[in-house]
Design goal:
Structural class: mainly alpha
Shape: elongated
CATH class of the largest domain: Mainly Alpha
Number of domains: 2
CATH architecture of the largest domain: Orthogonal Bundle
Number of strands: 2
Helix content: 55-70%
Distance between the termini: 29 Å
Largest sheet: 2 strands, antiparallel
Strand content: under 5%
């Protein structure tokens, strides 16, 4: 798993031009969860029981988080089959039932209070304003680069960010 994880990030996530937030998410899942659970294990030796143990180890996490972890595992294993690294996916991976959450929004007064609290830390204020005033989502904020900022005009160009969506 450890060896294939790096190959997967470069050859799958980056090569398929996933959003920066998607690449970062996969890298984190691989490093924090999958390398810990299956690091030295051969891909074709990962059993359904191993997957269930992983899900049990994540019992304190939300179902959506657990599903994200096992989905990355599933994609890694399917990619290994496509690349001829293993002959078949060696285990069954089933997702947990996860309730669908509705997006919640701050009203104007709540948003103003959030801005006031965030003023004590420059980065927090930037994130709050990009989300609340510019309407950017987390992944869009993470995709921003310095070249997207025009300091002379005091504005942000979202052209490159929107290309990731």
């Amino acid at each position: 798993m450890k060896e294939f994880a790096l190959r997967f990030l470069d050859g799958y996530a980056k090569a398929n031009r996933l959003k920066p937030s998607g690449i970062a998410s996969k890298e984190t899942v691989l490093r924090v969860h999958l390398a810990k659970a299956f690091g030295d294990k051969r891909l074709d030796e990962i059993s359904t029981e191993d997957v269930q143990r992983l899900k049990a180890a994540l019992i304190e996490r939300a179902p959506k988080t657990v599903n994200n972890v096992v989905t990355v595992l599933s994609v890694v294993l399917r990619t290994a089959v496509e690349w001829g690294v293993i002959a078949r996916v060696p285990c069954s991976i089933k997702l947990l039932k996860a309730p669908k959450n509705e997006a919640s929004f701050y009203d104007f007064d709540e948003f103003e209070r959030l801005v006031e609290v965030a003023r004590s830390e420059a980065l927090a204020l930037q994130v709050v304003l990009l989300g609340g005033e510019a309407g950017l989502r987390c992944g869009e904020i993470m995709a921003l680069e310095w070249t997207d900022v025009d300091f002379a005009k005091r504005q942000c160009s979202l052209g490159d960010v929107l290309n990731f969506l």
